[in-house]
Amino acid sequence: MNYPSISSITSILFLILSCSSAASADEHDNFLEYLSNKFKNNTSINNLNLVYTPNNSSYTSILRFSIQNLRFTSELTPKPLVIITPEHETQIPHVIYCAKENDIHIRIRSGGHDYEGLSYVSEIPFVILDLINFDDITVDAEQKTAWVESGARIGALYYRISERSLTLGFPAGVCPTVGVGGHFSGGGYGSLLRKYGLAADNVVDARIIDVNGKILDRKSMGEDLFWAIRGGGGASFGVILAWKIKLVDVPERVSVFTISPTLEQNATQLIHRWQYIANNFNRDLFIRILVRRVNSSQNATIRAEFQSIFLGGVNTLLPLMQESFPELGLVREDCTEMSWIQSILYFAGFPIESREVLLNRTQPNVRYFKAKSDYVQRPIPEYGLEGIWRLFYQQEADEAEIILSPYGGIMDEISESSIPFPHRAGNLYKIQHLVYWGEDEAVNSDRYISWIRRLYSYMAPYVSRFPRAAYINYRDLDIGVNNNEGKTSYSQARIWGFKYFKINFDRLVRVKTKVDPGNFFRNEQSIPSLYSSWTKTGED
Ligand code: FDA
């Protein structure tokens, strides 16, 4: 990251003013006027690409660039007053200051993958602070560490690591375009989960700008705040600029396979069996299952893709599978050996030779979707699985899927309170429920959302209870929201907070109350402050 002169800091603000003529909202005008007054002595305007208002021709393309869920692209979706894309960290405190003074929300966006669009949508007047220019990645292969800025994508992180070493990796997500800013702050997991835990488990330092505009690192922010930002969800505590991460060892060769039985090929029985064993496999072995309906000319059926990576060669994998999961019938021809970086491409569905695609910041297949998550602590009986298949035969489930990701391994050993992410020992696996639909069905979005809610209701007897746990990175506003305006009681926030964080929610609230007592950084599911917006008893 380069450090800017004062003129470039102030030019960003003048730009906002210069672009303001078409603004209609009072809040907008006040915000801009405030900036203008604050910096009226400066005339340098040279950063033309940092600020976008609705009357700027690039506003819509910048807004849409990172949007990963088309549900939030309609005309009716509330739009930001301004999008600011700072280039230097010293520009950000000014934006925080002006937004605070004018009571305007800031939505912080890194990769824009939030399932409910919270990084770029708000019902009340807001600006987007888009960290798209914060994408530096510095890998120190000798020390096995890296500094990665929040706007970088995890694909680029994997790519930069592989440039320096093919035997180092990092345990983060599967989709290369996911942004580091939101992903690490919500946990972040992928195919190395059972061996090395979450991305957030492997963060060793961070830089954040707090509500007072101070730039802090681990030492100056203190261990409470450092704990909170590793899994407590983005957007509650400040603007996270960058993370220092610990890289992990991966072998020169890993093995991958995908076996895809249908119901006619015993998929139900195989999934049923997998539930008993997948969390107890050798931790070098990760087998997840993606379940979808497939329609052939004769009939529709359900197909389960058992997709796997083993951190070792095929010669070791085959006897291991024979011992632990012989029912799957794995044979040598099903397996391919490759480098770990190639396995990233394999899991993401790209040709394994095309490493450069990891540097792409946008994914080709952006759709309308709604998702939910669940944790499974006791195997679901076969008749329970068959009930899921019945729902998959409904019309709305044409492009629905569930993804079952095994836990166990190191996830059983890390304590529930080590970081805010609490879903550790006792969980066999996590389910992600997803339903997608296309542009032509946009007017019928409610039908698809109702379908996934039916699936979620159906799952209730089979998944975790008290609380019915959920993963914050699979954001779901159905499970509870704050009041964006006015007060939110403790009991109201606790409804969603305990699902994501269990008892860690209370510590998150204590940290929030200390570092942002006025509850400036807030959204529909941000951690509330005890002082400003709610009371422990729920009384206003
Ligand atoms: P985005 O920019 O939308 O931010 C998400 C939240 O964090 C918002 O509330 C935002 O304000 C806040 N935030 C972002 N940057 C911040 C910053 N610098 N400082 C403070 N707050 C900040 N998850 C997973 O664990 N494993 C996986 O394999 C995948 N795969 C996947 C694929 C696809 C296609 C999608 C759409 C999503 C996933 N996810 C995932 C979920 C993903 O981890 C989750 O959506 C992350 O929050 C995305 O982070 P972004 O920075 O991209 O989102």
Automatic annotation (TrEMBL):
Its required cofactor(s), as named, are: FAD
Q: Does the keyword Signal apply?
A: yes
Q: In which pathway does it act?
A: Alkaloid biosynthesis
Is Signal included in the keywords of this UniProt record? yes
The segment(s) forming the FAD-binding PCMH-type domain are 76-250
Secretion signal, residue range per the UniProt entry = 1-25
Instruction: Note one Pfam family from the annotation.
Output: FAD_binding_4
Q: Which keywords appear in this protein's UniProt record, sorted alphabetically?
A: Alkaloid metabolism, FAD, Flavoprotein, Glycoprotein, Signal
Q: What is this protein called?
A: FAD-binding PCMH-type domain-containing protein
